[in-house]
Amino acid sequence: MSAASRVVSLLPSATEILFAIGAGDRVVGVTHECDYPEAASALPKVTSSLLPTEGVAPGDIDRHIHAARHAGSSIYRLDEAELARLEPDLIITQELCDVCAVAYSEVRRAVRRLAGDVPVLSLEPRSVEEVCLAIEEVGTFTGCVDAAARIAGAIRERIAELGTLPRVEPPPRVVCIEWTDPLMVGGHWVPEMVRVTGGLDVLGTEGAPSRYVSWDEVIDAQPEVMVLIPCGYDLARTLELVPEVASRRGFDDLPCARSGRVLAVDGSAYFSRPGPRIVQGLEILAAAIHAEPNDAAPPGAAYWNQPATSRIALISPTLL
Q1: Taking the domain 7-155, which CATH number applies?
Q2: Would you say domain 168-303 falls under CATH 3.40.50.1980?
Q3: Is the pTM for the entire model greater than 0.85?
């Protein structure tokens, strides 16, 4: 198989992988959400969102998504003319989630209209190990096998190192909130990340999709650590969501609220995208799960220090 030289990435995570393994100069087109590394932002965009998102509350976004699905409509537009103009010899996409990217069926339909036989690589990781395998697969398709192996190996090595951390027994109970209205908890690789770093994800299931939960389920879970990782949100936008969660009935009585271990995170960068920066997500979880009182928040995160007995304002993110 000859190495691809003109790649269109329809996944932010794939874009990150391509640049990380040294294939960034072969990327000729990306999505409107590909914002990392900075060089990716300047590349031609082949998608756009059909949903209002800027300044829109999570509940309204969720309602728009459900309405579009009910009507059989996509929530993204694929610019087929731009795709054809870019003349890709490889397109990278996914089938795992039609909220995260252009629907796979739409991509296949567009590819059939392109000249020649353009391969489509679909990445479907459901675990951290499968993220590593996806990195290696992209390396194979682009001829960057050695670099991809080094990056995947570094992730595996860090996981092994985290496994040697002193374990707290019993493991702290952790809830990872992936969406706030309606409430969703993280699935696929997120519960595994919690386990690897010494915690117990009490609502998510390893390898299974993210799922809706009720606030009563969160109360019943009595989390000792709560991590807010809303999909597609950076740290600043996540911090804006914390007051809504903190105002819910019974929040102040949760163990995580009493101890101050409620953590807002750049979920888009470190949890939602199955790529190289998943390592930073692991570091964030390890810091939160093993935190001592008054510890600073890890890079890319900020604690919501709001004990029931002494309400204070949001602290600023501590980026070390």
Answers
A1: 3.40.50.1980
A2: yes
A3: yes
